[in-house]
Amino acid sequence: MRAKITYLVTAAVLVFYFVLVGSRGVMLIQHGTPVTVAFGIAVLILPVIGLWFLWKNTQFVRRANQLSAELDAEGGLPVDELSRTPSGRVDRDSADQVFARRKAETEAAPDDWRTWFRLAVAYHDARDTPRARKAMQRAIALHDGKPVQAA
Model's pTM, two decimal places? Predict the structure, then answer.
């Protein structure tokens, strides 16, 4: 729940920032000189890119949460079996063992979105966020029946 609140607050701050920057871009364009119009257009591009990125990220999180809920309803969510250090961090050897099992599971059933979802969780536990995101994107695409590029 804390992560959801943090995400919503961050998204709200970003939207406020995009509106603020966008208004400055409009003010520059309204100034009317060729230089300020060019700067104004350049400044307007930033919030457009930011809003697009925020939208795509929100869609990704929403879809991943839907898959999580569906997998939970099936009783297929991965169980947290990781050892932790006294500070609460995941023990690296424990994460590596779980990851090896999840990878083998995914290689055995490469067209099953469930195995890719669990692999994404294993990547996340191993603190490999880029690969976790790619694995989750693949799980989402497989779930939706979309064509998936070879890894």
Answer: 0.78
